[in-house]
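Weekly sync, protein design subgroup
Attendees: M.S., D.O., the rotation student, P.L. (late)

Item 1: inverse folding check
M.S. brought a backbone from last month's batch and wanted to see whether the design step gives back something sensible before we order anything. D.O. pointed out we never logged the input encoding, so this time it goes straight into the notes. Structure tokens as presented (299 positions):
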């Protein structure tokens, strides 16, 4: 039988863990949606219960003592085990439910049109979609898997590469009038770019043996807006052909130059410290089948 005096509350453990990870009572309070004094009281109660000083409180930062570092490792492990146990119970209850975080453009243009095929294969699975950009904690957000564009450097997540991210210069035929036939001529057109990929044009130019380009004429926050501006004839943009094959086939966009691998990719991210459920496994296997389908999108 475990003595109750050695069992701290989960609130105290969460407060202590957050302070150690973030190095600040203020940051811990923001993460836990508590006041700074509430976090301080929880940690003080933990120290009193254990009879140990766990943190050295400085004016600008907080650092764990030697005993605090040892206990912080144990506290984080205990919290993760409790979280994994709760997820396992939830997974057993909701084994037919799958929550997916998707990128807006990838979701609407590539994934969602294919979802009917997934549902025909797995009618027992209920899908819940959330649109997310950027990294977040999959476990705490209750997300089973996320489609991510970029590098596979997502903390506490494991990555499966779906395909390489390749881009190609595209422009509306009305903008061209037969004038852009070489890479150098393409580079002289008004250039459109993504704010999140400021060096992409320089990379494409270097791959063609050209010097770095001046700053883009227009910068956009989202890929969908960038592509729409390109269709409207505002300039030339580096777009992924697999998302805009429809516009290319319809003549709304014209491919001007060679494709270029920008060094990133599209990934399926799943929680690193959680058991893989049957729904996640089914979705992953179906997704890989879709990517290799001979439907004219992937060469």
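Designed sequence read out in the meeting:
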């Amino acid at each position: 039988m475990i003595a109750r005096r050695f069992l701290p509350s989960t609130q105290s453990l969460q407060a202590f863990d957050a302070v150690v990870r973030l190095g600040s009572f203020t940051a811990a309070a923001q993460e836990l949606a508590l006041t700074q004094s509430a976090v301080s009281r929880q940690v003080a109660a933990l120290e009193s219960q254990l009879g140990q000083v766990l943190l050295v409180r400085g004016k600008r930062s907080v650092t764990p003592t030697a005993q605090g570092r040892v206990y912080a490792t144990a506290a984080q492990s205990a919290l993760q085990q409790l979280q994994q146990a709760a997820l396992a119970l939830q997974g057993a209850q909701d084994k037919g439910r799958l929550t997916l975080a998707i990128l807006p453009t990838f979701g609407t243009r590539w994934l969602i049109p294919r979802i009917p095929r997934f549902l025909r294969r797995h009618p027992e699975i209920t899908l819940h979609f959330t649109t997310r950009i950027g990294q977040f904690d999959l476990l705490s957000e209750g997300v089973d898997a996320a489609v991510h564009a970029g590098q596979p450097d997502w903390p506490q997540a494991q990555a499966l590469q779906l395909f390489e991210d390749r881009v190609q210069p595209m422009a509306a035929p009305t903008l061209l009038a037969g004038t852009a036939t070489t890479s150098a001529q393409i580079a002289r057109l008004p250039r459109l770019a993504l704010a999140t990929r400021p060096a992409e044009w320089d990379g494409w130019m270097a791959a063609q043996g050209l010097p770095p380009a001046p700053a883009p004429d227009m910068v956009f926050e989202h890929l969908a807006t960038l592509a729409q501006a390109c269709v409207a004839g505002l300039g030339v943009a580096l777009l992924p052909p697999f998302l805009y094959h429809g516009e290319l086939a319809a003549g709304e966009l014209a491919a001007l130059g060679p494709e270029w691998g920008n060094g990133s990719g599209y990934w399926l991210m799943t929680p690193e410290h959680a058991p893989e459920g049957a729904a996640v496994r089914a979705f992953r296997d179906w997704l890989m089948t879709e990517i290799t389908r001979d439907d004219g999108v992937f060469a």
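Discussion: The domain at 97-299 is CATH 3.40.190.290 (D-Maltodextrin-Binding Protein; domain 2). The first helix runs from residue 10 to 22.
Action: P.L. to compare against the previous round before Friday.
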